[in-house]
Write a structure and sequence with these properties.
Strand content: 25-35%
Order of helices and strands: HEEEEEHEHEEEHEEEEEEHEEEHEHEH
Shape: globular
Radius of gyration: 33 Å
Distance between the termini: 101 Å
Strand order of the largest sheet: 6-1-5-16-19-20
Structural class: alpha+beta
Largest sheet: 6 strands, mixed
Mean pLDDT: 85
CATH class of the largest domain: Alpha Beta
Number of domains: 2
Low-confidence stretches: 1-27
Helix content: 25-40%
């Protein structure tokens, strides 16, 4: 019987004459192909880059269409707009506010893979994070600011709606804070209510600015209410370009003759102001402002009823059309972003004031020809 060998026979040797043992002859060693090594290294690097693109956060914000909400409807079982202390009327039809999702920045993280995918999606937009959020802003700070903006927009919407309906209300102007190097330092304090300037009542910021302009830089006597006590201070305004400033940041406080409550959670920012105002008008007046039709829109509002620009309007139009809206009210200041992004089947009406928005809705609701309503063009 042949003896088993544990060694591998040298190349060219004969196999054992008998037995069940097998062996493999060692192939002659050949030099490695450099191209194979390069390809292997490239493959590993590509895999690592792909993993990093999925894992590492990217300094971008992705904007996409968010949900729409009917200001005439309800959310979580609560009427979005409710009135107490004044006659109100149920309304049908839809006056949708529109929203966007923002992914990235302090709120959440997005990867390079997410960014590349969104660049290829015409219904999404990608921005460097610094264009959307202030430097070093935290998630809590952003949420707090969004909540404050939403609360302010609700007060402004109520003021604008009541102004449109000729219902009187009271507004007061308060000192919110003082700017660096303010000429009012040591004279005005946060919380001061501005009452008079040179003996004239301060109705709003415009009336304050007019007296300062008429004074051509002369010291002005400001009457304020500080913790319930009247105080008068003399302040010499600063001139910047063609205007005179007291170096103070102002905020309005409103006193309405009845309660208007807007119940809406998990949505922030000021861009629903115009649609809130239209919803309040419809709630306070008999009949249906919309004629049962489906409108959507966006835009900030001030107490005088001026409609201001907002962000994310291409995505908001997509969300409005997906929800079934046929008419979209867009701020005139956003027209450059509207052109070229209007979804098929959506009529866009540009508006600069609450009255223009109200008149447009009334015309469409009447069933009359609304093709002549102003819209956004390449020239604005």
């Amino acid at each position: 019987m042949s003896q088993a060998h544990t060694d591998t026979p040298a190349p060219g040797s004969f196999p054992p004459p008998s037995g069940n043992l097998s062996y493999y002859a060692a192939a002659p060693q050949r030099p490695r192909d450099g191209r194979f090594v390069a390809m292997a290294v490239s493959g590993v690097l590509a895999l690592l880059l792909a993993l990093l693109a999925v894992v590492l956060p990217a300094p971008y914000v992705i904007e996409s269409a968010g949900p729409t909400l009917n200001t005439l409807g309800s959310e979580d079982g609560k009427q979005i707009i409710s009135v107490s202390g004044h006659q109100s009327y149920p309304a049908t039809g839809q006056l949708d506010l529109v929203t966007v999702y923002l992914n990235g920045g302090p709120q959440s993280q997005v990867s390079l893979f997410d960014v590349y995918r969104s660049w290829l999606d015409p219904q999404q937009a990608v921005y460097p994070v610094e264009l959307i959020y202030p430097p070093s802003a935290t998630k809590d700070q952003i949420n707090s600011q969004n909540a404050a903006d939403m609360s302010s927009s609700q007060d402004l919407a109520t003021a604008a709606a009541l102004g449109q309906l000729k219902i009187p209300y009271r507004q007061e102007l308060f000192v919110s804070s003082l700017s660096d190097g303010s000429p009012s330092a040591g004279k005005l304090q946060p919380g001061d209510a501005l009452k008079t300037i040179d003996g004239q009542p301060i109705v709003d910021q415009a009336s304050l600015q007019k007296v300062l302009a008429d004074g051509q830089g002369k010291a002005a006597a400001l009457g304020v209410l500080r913790q319930g006590a009247p105080v008068t201070v003399m302040i010499t305004p600063q001139k910047r370009e063609d205007r005179y400033y007291l170096g103070i940041l102002l905020t309005y406080k409103y006193t309405f003759p009845f309660d208007v409550k807007i119940s809406l959670e998990n949505i922030g920012g000021p861009s629903a102001g115009m649609m809130f105002a239209l919803g309040i008008i419809d709630t306070l007046t008999p009949g249906n402002l919309t004629g049962g039709k489906h409108f959507a829109g966006t835009g900030t509002i001030d107490a005088a009823g001026n409609v201001g620009a907002i962000g994310g309007i291409p995505q908001k139009m997509v969300g409005a059309r997906s929800a079934g809206a046929s008419v979209f009210l867009a701020p005139a200041a956003n027209c450059q972003e509207v052109v070229g992004h209007v979804p098929e089947g959506l009529q866009v009406v540009k508006v600069s004031t609450l009255k223009e928005a109200y008149d447009a809705v009334t015309l469409v609701a009447s069933g009359k020809d609304a093709s002549g309503l102003p819209t956004c063009t390449a020239g604005g």
